[in-house]
Design a protein that fits this description.
This protein is mainly α. It contains four helices and no strands.
């Protein structure tokens, strides 16, 4: 994995973990990372990552109806 350094304003009072989660959940939501990859990025188990997705406003389930039909057919 790569390491990226971000410079953020001092006024933003979030913990480093929250920044990592925000980035990881967004990349997961956009389909750029799997749940396992996003979990690895955050240092969590896959289960723990999935369990706290909602706290960051991300659903475990896809937003598109096509993805839902695909998920159902693959179940």
């Amino acid at each position: 994995m790569r390491t990226i350094q971000l410079t953020i304003p001092d006024e933003i009072e979030l913990k480093e973990f929250d920044f990592t989660m925000i980035v990881a959940t967004k990349l997961y939501e956009d389909g750029l990372l799997s749940a396992g990859q996003a979990a690895q990025m955050t240092g969590l188990s896959k289960r723990a990552f999935i369990e706290i997705l909602g706290k960051y406003g991300v659903s475990l389930f896809s937003q598109s109806i096509e993805d839902l039909h695909l998920d159902i057919s693959n179940a």
